[in-house]
Design a protein that fits this description.
Helix content: 25-40%
Structural class: alpha/beta
Radius of gyration: 24 Å
Number of domains: 3
GO molecular function, one term: zinc ion binding
Distance between the termini: 54 Å
Organism: Cucurbitaria berberidis CBS 394.84
Protein name: MYND-type domain-containing protein
Keywords: Metal-binding, Zinc, Zinc-finger
InterPro entries: DUF4470, Znf_MYND
Amino acid sequence: MSSTYFHPRLCANSTNGVQCTQSADRFACAKCRLVQYCSKACQAAHWPTHKKQTCNHELMSKEWLPNYAKEQRLPKFADGSESGLDIFGPLKYLWGQEPALDLINLAQNEGLEDLSRNVDVLCAASGDSRHVFKTIANLPEKHTGKCTIVSNDIDLDIVARTAIFLLIAGYMEQEEAVPAIIHLWYSALIPSSMLSRVCEKILPLVEDVCTKIAAKAPHSPLGKTFKLDSGSSIRIVLTKEQWFKLRQYLFLPTGVTRTFAKEGRALQINNPRRIDYKQNHWYYKSPAFRTCIAKFLNDDILLPFGTSRQQFDTPNPTFHQRPDMWPFRDDAGPFYGWSHEDVMQGKQVAAEDVLGAQFFMLRSLLSKVCGRIRASDVHFKLSCLDARDLPGRLKQWGETQEFDRIEVSNLCDRAYCGPAAIINLFSPLLKPLPINPHATLLLFFSGANKEMQLSLTDPEKAHEWYAANKRTACYLAVPNPYTIPQWHPDGFRFHQCAGSVMFDWDKMWEKFQVVVGLRGLVLDAGLKIRREDEHGVARAWPKRMRDMTKEEFNLRLGRDATCFERYVELIRTG
């Protein structure tokens, strides 16, 4: 498999579809800062095409407006004909909902004095692989202890993809493995040669299991441990039916061609009922950022902006197991599973190219993961269960039942299991206090504060919105009805900012804790809630925007349109 997938060509100049092969780490387009070149000569040769396609594109204009504003009409989400809360597509999150976390973060918890300690992590409802990969990549270089990550999710799409990624990391050479994981993770199209190489290396491993379990009952759990030369291992526990489905994730269903896949995806993500909502959201973003989003929506391939997509010719089979469904919401994007700071660690000469930045950030992170798996004592255990059944199954299977970190995603929201059920289920699995006083149960409340906001009485709403508007006015101009038309997006931006970014979510959080009796639940379980300044795994308010300059505010507003999510860290008291 070509090393150009690990080292993508960055000079944006191409002739007859053939991209320049020279190193391009010196020059970037000074106007858009989205593409880079090997020389001024290549930049000049590419200028007529680049000027038309990118620099002079309407999305790059600072004066760009959504279609509804150009047409001087209220958007559909404001005129009563559509709800801005409507979504299109399945409730799947193959790229995650919130930024990736280093779940261990030894420096902020146990400390770096004893780097021979064993560490056990449980992801009870893992979502995609980002927490697992970031956690492994961020282990201290000198850590010599055993690291075990138990990762579970009820969705086979998620578990199958994680299993494939880990097998690739364990059984393929790093320069092949890293780009293969990146593109199977994020790209709708991948090179046929890349898919062939993955099948060559990974398919025999899965087919061997399928052959050996052919006579087993279809729904009984069957485990296989793949032992690597380094001593690391990947254990996968699935039913017979799920094992055979795992094999199929490396094949495209009959009839899924490049054209078929592209048309099906476009039908979902370009639904005309959502244009006003999506363009309104783009208005918050910088010209370069919205141009990157538009490019990704057009081709759905995670590569630097100026890199040729010509070799990406085959639909990603992990996205197309159901030919009739694109497995993402129409507002899903590759950036939302990572913090802006994480993404920009991969920034290149073309400093505004967030697609390239994310590619290179992932390349660095996954290179560390591959290195860890090959050189350290790292063990992965994957299962596909309802999280509520997981503690019992771990006991039944004789697996690890004491953990330094337990991450449960947003299962603690009342729309799912609720905090009482999750605390009662998983707090007994924390390591005892004498063994590790830093053992942490991490709860993520994605909807609790919005739930409290919606429950406010009319007088309470009026009071809270008045205060939120005053805070918003410190950063955005107050829309004047005499000078700003009703349809202008500045008005919607102000009010949406007041209702999300600048709302008093601390007050909503206090209300939620009282409503569900959270402090009592925690106390009864022998736990305590860490103060916000004591958090060692995740920031209590991961998207909060306070005490920043207007420039910083506008930058963050374009990336984090919500600020109501809340993490809670629970530790033992005795």
